[in-house]
Amino acid sequence: MQALLSLKIPSMMPVMNADVKIERLLIDCFSCVQGVGFRPTIYRIANSYSLTGNIFNNAKGVHLDLEGHSEYLKRFIAEIQSAQLNPIKIEKITIQKAELKYHQKLMIGASVDGAESNNYSLPPDLATCSSCWDDFHNPNHRLYQYPFISCTDCGPRWSIVEKLPYDRNQTSMKQFPMCHECLEDYQNPNSRRFHSQTLCCKNCGPQLSMPINQAALMIADNKIGLVKGLTGYHLVGNAESELVIQKIRLLKSRPEKALAVMLKDCHQVDQVLQAQLKASSAPLVITNKIKTKFQKLLAPKLKTLAVMLPPTPLHFLLFGDLKFLIATSGNPKNYPLVKDKDELPADWLNQIDFILDHNRVIQHCVDDSIVIENQIIRRGRGLAPKISPHQAKSSLKSNLVAWGSDMKVSPLIQTPTQRVQLPYLGELLHPKNGERIKKEVEDMLQLLNIKNYIDLIDAHPQSLTKQLIHSQDATLIFHHHAHAESAYQELKTEFVFTFDGTGYGEDGHHWGGELLERSPQGQWKRLFSFEPMPYFAGEQMIKFPAFALAALKTQCGTYEGTLKPYIDQSSLMTTSAGRWFDALASHLFFKEKEITYEAQAAIELEQLAIEPSQSIDWKQFNFQGNFPTLTLAKYIIYEFEGRFSPNERAWLAHDGLAFLVARIAEQRKEYCFGASGGVWQNQLLRKRCLHYFTQIKKELLYSSPCNDESIALGQIGVFECMS
Questions:
Q1: CB count, 10 Å around CB of 545?
Q2: Average pLDDT, rounded, for the chain
Q3: Could you write out the three-class secondary structure of 148-167?
Q4: Distance, CA of 371 to CA of 369 (rounded, Å)
Q5: pLDDT (tens digit, 9 = 90+) per residue, 86-108?
Q6: pLDDT, tens digit (0-9, with 9 covering 90-100), for 656-708
Q7: DSSP characters for 363-413?
Q8: Within 10 A of 96 (CB to CB), how many other CB atoms are there?
Q9: How does DSSP classify residue 266?
Q10: Are 287 and 274 in contact (CB under 8 A)?
């Protein structure tokens, strides 16, 4: 909004005369235009053109009823159409002429209930903006050192919404009436907090359960705290204490998975990383540019750390003299995010040294967003919920609820005119999270006044989503068709490589390493796949990468171990890229261990990879068939043993697979190919694909996120074509 406020007021206004043409326009602005300072910004611009009328929220977005000189109105519309500045997102503007009302003044009016509307605006929560940080650090400002400082550019939004449209009296802020000073700010058109719905101060705003300096002292003394923040709770402790790191690992039942780290500031990092960290979503950024002496304890066997800046002053005030804090989600393993500490198990809470709570109610929990090299890994705070206009096919009048996958649940709701993307909600594999996921979807449907809809779910016979929603009429969509369609919806790529851990295929086997082609009618057909290997032992094959290695060696004709009888009894096969990487990781590094977090073996394989000094020309190797992944695996496991170190063979596995992907693309006339599926989060694989696709002068584009969060979008796209 600050950039909008700096727009120059026109110096040359048309000269008024007897022939002046006065008009009245009704203007509707759609998408993310609530909770981002849009009405105050529009007020200032309209006032600069001497327009009169009313500006108010409704469930569609923001409605403008304006009168004035026709030339002024024309310039006003041109200005707001060109002012697409973060966080204000105007996706669509409609304009209608109306009979003059002869408004006497310009005002921001009361919001209008949107019960009859079929278009909605939902603002995501935003981390503290730079202007509020300036006020926070300014000893002469009345909001100096105030933990809950906010303005029209930042602060809680979706997490406090009770009803639409977004107004203070329909949020958790309704219990905090503004004091005289805040009310003056709220009513002052020249204030950055003009009509800020979250405006408050130490005299009228939320209160902490304990002095924050006391919490900071306890953290400095290596105590661990549960801290209620903007959209949920964090477990917080000193990131440079081995004792604290180990205790948090015990509390989270997380022996090896990387712990998120909050930085006090980012003055010492390069501008690219600074820009990522300072985004309005305050995401966790996975990077190798931050170094700490406790790297091996915080992120075992990884070269990267997941780091973030304090999303609010409340978090900043916890640092004291420390530079690094652990800030991981404040819930036990397999437990959902919670709105209130009382939802957490008492025996778990008793192991925490202190709780820093506050009395602003969280209506909707939202997890931290995660990005890596500008690629979205998780749509959380600041990135969702997100509404975008969408004109459904004329033959499709139904509302749709696409539930996505059982993992990385991120449902998408579609009306005939809009798509509403919910934030990442966790995993259905954890039963306690199912209730939360169902409640969030039901709450959103109620907010949007949607009563009738069609459920879209994954086609797997044991789909946990189907069990959760108890629907016998849900439409089943194949997992990898949805992955491919998500890439098509976003990138318009008709040939998509779908690489992931597993998904139920239309032939009843476990897919996960395919090239799919989209027909003109929107149907997906498998062209090529990884060479199949046996799928046995169910979830055990995912938990123990050695099982995948046994299956791969069996298919290569080189395995006679203790698992052979179980493999021989299985009739299922898998083409999973994830299991292929697991098998190689088990052979090179991971051995017989059980994974302690999702994709651990494959992640470590990528992180431990080292480019060999001796180059390989894959064109000189005897690759037969379309996608000879077993042949490549034989080279990595057998032929390269002794010639290359395990770390070098890990690199060659990624490089060789990238070569095979580009080899397929080179044989086709198409220029652009899509990629979707969790395996494509592998940065080394992406970089090697870029290398080979550059050589053949073609392009590989990725859905975002490329993991199972993209499934819901694909489910809707597939259903539209089916209809």
A1: 30
A2: 92
A3: CCCECCEECCHHHECCCCCC
A4: 7
A5: 556 677 788 999 999 989 999 88
A6: 999 999 999 999 999 999 999 999 999 999 999 999 999 999 999 999 999 99
A7: SS--PPPEEETTEEEE--TTT-SEEEE----TT--S-EEE---SSS---EE
A8: 9
A9: -
A10: no
Show the beta-strand stretches assigned E in 31-98: 52-58, 61-69, 92-98
Q: Contact 490/478 with Cβ under 8 angstroms?
A: no
Q: What is the dihedral of CA 333, 337, 340, 341, to 10 degrees?
A: 20
Cβ(533)–Cβ(546) below 8 Å? no
- Residue in 582, 622, 624, 629 with CA at minimum distance from that of residue 606: 582
Place of tokens 């690489």: 499
Distance CA 246, CA 66 (A): 61
Site of tokens 């105590």:
223
Residues in Cβ contact with 140 at an 8 Å cutoff, skipping those fewer than 6 apart: none
End-to-end CA distance of the chain: 42
Three-class secondary structure of residue 39 per DSSP: helix
Phi, psi of 116 (to 5 degrees): -95, 0
Kindly provide the b/e burial profile for residues 251-282, where b requires at least 16 CB atoms within 10 angstroms of the residue's own CB.
bbeeeebbbbbbbbebeebeeebeebbebbbb
Q: Tell me the C-alpha distance between 181 and 379, whole Å.
A: 36
DSSP string covering 586-627, please?
A: IIIIITTPPPSSTTHHHHHHHHH----SS---GGGS---SS-
What are 71-79's contacts with CB under 8 Å, separation 24+? 71/14, 72/13, 72/14, 73/23, 73/25, 73/49, 75/10, 75/49, 76/45, 76/46, 76/49, 76/51, 77/25, 77/27, 79/7, 79/45
Residue that is written with structure tokens 């709105």 in the block:
339
The pLDDT tens digits of the residues spanning 183-242 come to 999 999 889 898 899 999 999 999 999 999 999 999 999 999 999 999 999 999 999 999
- Taking residue 220's Cβ as centre, other Cβ atoms within 10 Å add up to 15
The domains found in the chain, sorted by start residue, are 2-108 (3.30.70.100), 212-372 (3.90.870.10), 390-475 (3.30.420.360), 510-520+525-709 (3.30.420.40)
- Enumerate helices (H) and strands (E) in the chain, giving the number of each: 23, 27
Q: Which amino acid is at 659?
A: F
Using one digit for the tens of pLDDT, what is the confidence trace for 31-47?
A: 655 556 678 888 888 99
Q: Cα Rg for the chain, rounded, in angstroms?
A: 27
Question: Taking the alpha carbons of 389, 393, 399, 400 in that order, is the dihedral positive or negative?
Answer: negative
| Closest to 306 in 3D by CA, of 334, 282, 330, 339 | 282
Asked if the model's pLDDT at residue 156 lies above 80, the reply is: yes
Burial group, residue 81, by CB count within 10 angstroms (0-12, 13-18, 19+): exposed
| Cβ atoms of residues 233 and 338 within 8 Å | yes
Q: Say how far apart CA 663 and CA 187 lie, in whole Å.
A: 64
Report how far residue 267's alpha carbon sits from residue 270's, in angstroms, rounded to the nearest whole number.
8
Three-class SS string for 321-351? CCCEEEEEECCCCCCCCCCCHHHCCHHHHCC
364 to 7, 33, 136, 161: CA distances (angstroms): 35, 20, 26, 8
CB-hemisphere CA count at 13 Å for 176? 23
CB 702 within 8 A of CB 374: no
Q: Over the range 629-662, which residues count as b (16 or more CB within 10 Å of their CB) and which as e?
A: bbbbbbbbbeebeeebebbbbbbbbbbbbbbbbb
